Amino acid sequence: MAEAFGIAAGAVGIAAAFTACVDCFEYVQFGRHFGRDYQTDLLALNCSRVRLTRWGQAVDILNDPKLGRPDATAPEIRTVKDTLYQILVLFADSAKISQQYKLGATAGEDLSVFSIDSMDSAIVALSNNMRELAIKRQKSSSILKITQWALYRRSEFKSLIEGISSLIDSIEKIFPAPQAQVTLVRQEATELHDQGTLELVQSAAEGVDSLLQNAAKEVLSGHRYLNVLVKGKAQAGDAVSSDWHGRALGALGASHIYDGVVVDNDGKALIGNKYGGKDFWDD
Fold this sequence. Notes:
By secondary structure, the chain is mainly α. The chain has helices at 14-24, 38-58, 74-104, 121-138, 154-174, 178-190, 195-204, 210-221; strands at residues 28-30, 149-151, 224-230, 233-235, 257-263, 268-270.
């Protein structure tokens, strides 16, 4: 396996590999060849970073060597570590391509990059929000000692974001943590403060982070519960707890739609909402 930023694959543990991956997102810049569309690409990259940190927190990667699964085998753990390392390789390859592009640039070619001053204020606020969330989940400092590099061609960005998404897909399949991830993504969605921000996220997350895209869509449109028959106990939508701190998912005014919901005499159902307090299943 190729070295990434001078780090051999066997030289890092799984937690250090994860932290380094999260850190790499910080170093990517966009050349002015991208035009104004670079803002959408930047948000897509941020969505990918948040998705990776969400999974990491869901499996407690920084503290649990078994990633939340006591029966996890050594080959499974090694596969996840190798996959995280491969994300580092993608970033390292991107940095090399950037350097080669600069070396081959013609005289007078614009190699400048976009800065915060070039961005819409709403994009800046959202980008900073996502960055802070990822850094908070990352917790420890990275082992990387690298400088920023720029993407100059959209094909390079597409290759990078698609490669990262595919690799995150792989580790989520080996160590799934759907309940924890859903709880976390709903918390993420409620930190977005207005309709415009949610719409930006819904668009940027397409093809990159389906959980975040659906969570943003849910906040914007509310739930639809049609032809539901409950026998026993059932939960459909929302809940959260442990213990909830933040706005309610319906804070934008989107209402739920109920049609044909039937609960048996001995049944009990939570169908939408409830955020903090006693867990529905504790009764």
